[in-house]
Amino acid sequence: MSDNSFGELFRVTTWGESHGPAIGCVIDGTPPGIGLDEDSIQVWLDRRRPAQSRFTSQRREDDAVHILSGVFEGLTTGTPISLRIENMDSRGRDYESIKDKFRPSHADYTYMQKYGLRDYRGGGRASARETAMRVAAGAVARLVLGSNVVVRGALVQIGPHPVDRERWDWEEIHRNEFWCPDAQMAEVWASFMDDTRKSGTSVGAIVELVATGVPAGLGAPIYGKLDAELAGAMMGINAVKAVEIGLGFESVLLNAQQNADEMRIDGEMIQFLSNNSGGILGGISTGQEIVLRFAVKPTSSVPTPLRTVNTMGEEVDIATLGRHDPCVGIRAVPVGEAMMACVLADHYLRHRAQCG
Predict the structure, then answer these.
(1) Contact indicator for 331, 348 with CB cutoff of 8 Å
(2) pTM over 0.70
(3) What's the pLDDT tens digit per position in 137-173?
(4) CA atoms of 65 and 227, how far apart (whole Å)
(5) How far is CA 215 from the centre of its chain?
(6) Element (H, E) at 15
(7) CB 22 within 8 A of CB 16
(8) Fewer CB atoms near the end CB (10 Å): N or C, the chain?
(9) Which phi and psi angles does 54 have, rounded to 5°?
């Protein structure tokens, strides 16, 4: 299987399957001399870990990360950093009943069409289990970027229920189980998700990411646009079906004057009067906050019977047992943050290499 790597100078390759013995990644391009230990990675993995609430998969994984290479006496050496997480609670037997059936809206059918075989245990590489290693890589990327750059995310909509931006509080995302910046909406979501889970179905969500402290000048015109590569990174996350940057689709409702991010001089600095473009113009960062949102579809694996076909070409019904997120968008927040951090770290190193 090809295409298991992303990034140019900060390059990440992941490996492993959902129900194999372990998952891991190799990170190449990290500059030497950066302080790195397992604890500095684990803190981010713990934010993504399953079974932390009744609203996520009940698979019990510690997600304990082990550094195998690239660090000596607490500092990165500039050589490849290899990380591994052992799968402690895999249950491949949960999928025996559907091993010959294609789950609707899952990658089962397309994997079979491409490779002629598939790992039916949780979807193998198509499982969201793989994203744990992206979060681990994102922890390293944050260290490359330094403390001045802050990447954070929030869940802004579950199903038909969006947050009220008048009540937005970044601190609130640490006080509830949804990464929700709106305390009142978190209560609505809790009731909504209980009903969703009990009815044997799943729902989608929208995640918003914001990066502050990003210097102007990251990205490149035409084929190395920062917004294009951010969008590609988000679309590479399991179950993501749409990405928008800045106002995104809403910008079509505005005219040129309303959409323009006008500028003035504040002392010796240029000040933008708005940020409709999401902090990126012509594929290059403006120095403003970088803002993007991505939509996550409902989890494909549900216990309610659905119509499908099997590998023998027969029409059958399928009900997927096992442990699945009723809204995979909840745990997509730290994954999105990690992918944004990786892209920004890659462009930071590329900018430094070209422009000093």
Answers:
(1) no
(2) yes
(3) 999 999 999 999 999 999 999 999 999 999 999 999 9
(4) 31
(5) 22
(6) strand 11-16
(7) yes
(8) C
(9) -75, -5
